[in-house]
Amino acid sequence: MTRFTVNNQSVEYLLDPETPLLWALRDASNLTGTKYGCGTGHCGSCTVDVDGRAVRSCRMTIAQAEGTFVTTIEGLSRDRSHPLQLAFLAEGVVQCGFCIPGIIMAAQALLRRNADPDEATIRATISNLCRCGVYPRLVDAITRAARAMRGEEVIPAGARPDIDPADAARAVPALTPGRGQ
């Protein structure tokens, strides 16, 4: 039995102690925001916060997590109101979205250690890979979130400013089978 805290909930896993933390979170706890990307720790899609550090969960076993505090993207903010989540939305960072939870968790650990990182620090610290190439907007979003976390800016919640809320909520017509779809 392996015990640690996940998103402020005490958890006991009845899994092989060598099970990667990634699979315990995804399969046993249904926290699917933590993504499997490469399995070697290079891409960062599986990044979670372990005791305040950004950790690649595919490379950490649950035995190594014993007694720690783990935070996943789901535990960052239940209503997606964390300044990083708001800044990523406001800056239009997200494209396919696959890598974003890991990037946000890495950025969260950075901002916990450094409340005012410069661009070089952000680029050196956030080593997560993004196949969509969101890096310029990524730096802007992390800088903006840092300002918000220092109380220097308020980031409005909701859709991006350039998207009309009526368009964002517009219903998609149902597909009719056999009609050329």
Automatic annotation (TrEMBL):
<dbReference type="Pfam" id="PF01799">
    <property type="entry name" value="Fer2_2"/>
</dbReference>
<keyword id="KW-0408">Iron</keyword>
<feature type="domain" description="2Fe-2S ferredoxin-type">
    <location>
        <begin position="1"/>
        <end position="76"/>
    </location>
</feature>
<dbReference type="Pfam" id="PF00111">
    <property type="entry name" value="Fer2"/>
</dbReference>
<keyword id="KW-0001">2Fe-2S</keyword>
<feature type="compositionally biased region" description="Low complexity">
    <location>
        <begin position="157"/>
        <end position="174"/>
    </location>
</feature>
<dbReference type="InterPro" id="IPR036884">
    <property type="entry name" value="2Fe-2S-bd_dom_sf"/>
</dbReference>
<dbReference type="InterPro" id="IPR051452">
    <property type="entry name" value="Diverse_Oxidoreductases"/>
</dbReference>
<dbReference type="GO" id="GO:0016491">
    <property type="term" value="F:oxidoreductase activity"/>
</dbReference>
<keyword id="KW-0479">Metal-binding</keyword>
<dbReference type="InterPro" id="IPR036010">
    <property type="entry name" value="2Fe-2S_ferredoxin-like_sf"/>
</dbReference>
<dbReference type="InterPro" id="IPR012675">
    <property type="entry name" value="Beta-grasp_dom_sf"/>
</dbReference>
<feature type="region of interest" description="Disordered">
    <location>
        <begin position="157"/>
        <end position="181"/>
    </location>
</feature>
<dbReference type="GO" id="GO:0046872">
    <property type="term" value="F:metal ion binding"/>
</dbReference>
<dbReference type="InterPro" id="IPR001041">
    <property type="entry name" value="2Fe-2S_ferredoxin-type"/>
</dbReference>
<dbReference type="InterPro" id="IPR002888">
    <property type="entry name" value="2Fe-2S-bd"/>
</dbReference>
<protein>
    <submittedName>
        <fullName>(2Fe-2S)-binding protein</fullName>
    </submittedName>
</protein>
<keyword id="KW-0560">Oxidoreductase</keyword>
<keyword id="KW-0411">Iron-sulfur</keyword>
<dbReference type="GO" id="GO:0051537">
    <property type="term" value="F:2 iron, 2 sulfur cluster binding"/>
</dbReference>
<dbReference type="InterPro" id="IPR006058">
    <property type="entry name" value="2Fe2S_fd_BS"/>
</dbReference>
